[in-house]
Design brief:
This protein is mainly α. It is built from 27 helices and 8 strands. Helices cover 59% and strands 4% of the residues. The radius of gyration is 27 Å and the shape is globular.
């Protein structure tokens, strides 16, 4: 590894981009968590957040420009050199420059003109990557795919925006209780950072959440893939085709709800999608970069990426160490110098200092409330086979098909076959097998997040690596072999399209509303009702169907809900020892659909919570005279009828 040539300038440029991205997000993560712990007001947090972001970005950019060979500094030649040689040596002395004159295309006598830092073929490859980034940004904005997780992530932020002088904390305000404070210690800080920008610049938060950040994320996904590919395939003129392969795979591998494609462009508004589609590739690239070359910039990128991704989703605290351990073992297998492996491993582990502190801080809470038997894990499988089924659709097994093809090509023709085989073997031996899975599920990840460990496998990265290899070999082969390869490629692509396009693409999801003009990714009928509720209901406690209650909390913080969304409220109530209360609320909200014969649970909940001010019910409820009469007796009156619903409000409670 020591004698390897320096990374191409394009790779260094991408690393610089992600150094800025990760540093800003890492700084915001630390700041947000400190603000919550120290109870700093949201207004002051916003000022600090913007200042920190600008400072972090400026420092990283200036440091990169000063040290990187992409932006070489011209220095005066030493007196004992030929002027031309001195100029070349000055350019070579930048941090990322190699020690050989050939690194910049000059011979030993300095008589030839230096070639560009980025060659024409590399520029074409970079152009393709940038084109894919633009397409990714447009795709992330155009896919209109509502997700109920938004009902958990957004409401705490909306409350903070409406109460900027209140102290930030881990308290849950949009779920109503009788004096009992609910806490959410594992919610991400990613949304609060977005809110700080929205508040500072006077922009609607949902516009930032659904339009601004998904556009940025969609743009960065292909760049992250290209960066990770750059540590496997040094010839950057092939990286463009490899990135294209990964881009296509992200579209095709949507054969189940949790396959890789469904956590990229389709759900770019979520922090966990940022983690899985950007954080993991960047972490892989930075880790292998550091282990192979021990660059300080790579160490910093590992540290900042791990911190930033913990801010995007708490599950990164368990997934990234697992991925790091697998990459360490793969590097050790590929490297003969064990002393070097130990030294690099110690440096690599030191990059996880903050993540280690974070794990220790939340370990007790996580094991008590999200461990075995917790409500959050109800209904989730507790076996390896159960989680593997999230990636294998028997009717359209596109994912295993692409995995096997990519792995076969990478091992058969790739120069890093030892690394890839050790990577797969280590992941399977340590985490992804039926023997260890039950222990890992119960003690490390929890049942609801173990499936994300499949992302520690080198896929879809090796899909891009495979095509990059084939692209390079294609240019070197004979016409006869090109013809045979073309026929074989047509057969493979045909099988893949048969498996993927007809049943397994991200556009085949039942959750997909449409592909078109960007907007708020909330179902139109739900958004219509929620908007009418905010306009016509009286501020106060509300009981509404889960989707409407969740959407109302995304629009306003003035309507604390008894039920909001389909999981978060019950998890928080159960964590506070109110599991029975969560069950009663769940039973009562079913009555709001109008399909229940017995409304006893609704009357019991209204008696239990006399402070309920608003009800949102389906029209079917009011068609039952006995139910309508009882609601009138309790002081409720109809103030609006949006869509197929009715809004009922009482003037006192």
């Amino acid at each position: 590894m020591i004698g390897e040539p320096r990374r191409p300038a394009v790779h260094i440029l991408l690393r610089s981009i992600f150094l800025v991205f990760a540093s800003v997000l890492a700084g915001s993560t630390v700041l947000t968590q400190l603000a919550q712990l120290l109870h700093i007001s949201f207004r002051h947090y916003c000022v600090a957040s913007v200042l920190l972001s600008v400072s972090a970005a400026t420092i990283v950019i200036l440091t990169t420009v000063r040290r990187s060979r992409v932006f070489p500094r011209m220095r005066q030649p030493r007196e004992d050199r030929h002027p031309a040689c001195g100029a070349a040596a000055g350019a070579l002395s930048a941090d990322e420059m190699g020690t050989h004159a050939s690194a910049v295309g000059i011979d030993a006598s300095c008589t030839t003109t230096p070639s560009p830092l980025i060659t024409r073929s590399e520029m074409r490859s970079l152009g393709l990557v940038l084109l894919l980034s633009v397409c990714g940004s447009l795709l992330a904005l155009a896919i209109y795919r509502p997700d109920t997780d938004d009902y958990t992530y957004v409401p705490p932020v909306v409350y903070a925006l409406e109460h900027p002088d209140e102290a930030l904390s881990f308290s849950v305000h949009h779920i109503h209780t009788h004096g009992e404070t609910l806490h959410a210690y594992l919610t991400s800080t990613y949304e609060l950072y977005q809110a700080s920008l929205a508040f500072t610049f006077g922009v609607d938060y949902l516009f930032v959440y659904y339009c601004v950040f998904p556009g940025i994320v969609g743009f960065l996904i292909p760049l992250a893939s290209a960066f990770a590919l750059g540590v496997l395939e040094d010839r950057w003129d092939s990286i463009g085709s490899g990135t294209l392969a990964i881009f296509v795979l992200y579209i095709l591998i949507g054969d189940t709800h949790r396959t890789f494609g469904n956590f990229a462009f389709a759900r770019a508004q979520h922090g966990k999608a940022v983690f899985l589609s950007i954080g993991i590739p960047v972490f892989i690239g930075a880790t292998l970069d550091f282990l192979q070359r021990a660059r300080r910039s790579s160490w910093w990128l590992v540290a900042c990426t791990s911190i930033a991704m913990v801010g995007c989703t708490a599950s990164a605290a368990s997934i990234l160490p697992a991925l790091g351990s697998v990459l360490l073992l793969a590097f050790a297998y590929e490297t003969e110098n064990m002393r070097l492996v130990v030294r690099r491993s110690l440096g690599f582990v030191s990059a996880f200092l903050y993540v280690g502190i974070y794990i220790l801080a939340i370990w007790g809470y996580a094991t008590a409330n999200f461990g075995k038997g917790a409500l959050e894990n109800a209904g989730w499988p507790d076996s390896f086979a159960g989680h593997a089924a999230f990636y294998f659709n028997g009717h359209a097994p596109a994912t295993p098909f692409y995995v096997l093809i990519a792995l076969g090509v990478s091992v058969a023709f790739g120069e890093r076959r030892g690394l890839i085989l050790a990577w797969v073997a280590a992941a399977a031996a340590l985490y992804l097998n039926p023997v260890v899975a039950p222990y890992v599920i119960d003690n490390v990840t929890g049942r609801n997040t173990y499936w994300r460990l499949f992302y520690i496998l080198p896929f879809p990265l090796i899909g891009g690596y495979a095509l990059a290899i084939l692209s390079r070999k294609w240019r070197q082969t004979t016409p006869a072999l090109k013809a045979c390869a073309s026929v074989l490629a047509i057969i493979i692509i045909g099988l893949g399209l048969r498996l993927g396009v007809h049943r397994g693409t991200i556009f085949e999801s039942d959750d997909l509303e449409r592909v078109g003009v960007p907007g708020y990714k909330i179902r139109p009928n739900v958004l219509s009702v929620a908007t009418a509720v905010v306009a016509k209901a009286r501020p106060g406690v509300m009981l509404a169907p889960p989707d409407i209650g969740g959407a109302v909390c995304m629009l306003s913080g003035q309507f604390p809900q008894l039920v909001a969304g389909y999981g978060g409220y019950s998890t928080w109530l159960s964590a506070a020892g109110m599991g029975e209360e969560a069950r009663i609320r769940g039973d009562a909200v079913i009555c709001l659909s109008g399909k229940e014969a017995d409304y006893g649970s609704l009357w019991a909940l209204l008696a239990r919570h006399p402070d309920i001010v608003n009800l949102v019910v389906r029209d079917l409820v009011l068609q039952r005279r006995d139910v309508f009469a009882e609601l009138k007796r309790q002081g409720f009156r109809v103030v609006g009828r949006p869509e197929d619903c009715a809004i009922l409000t009482r003037s006192h409670s």
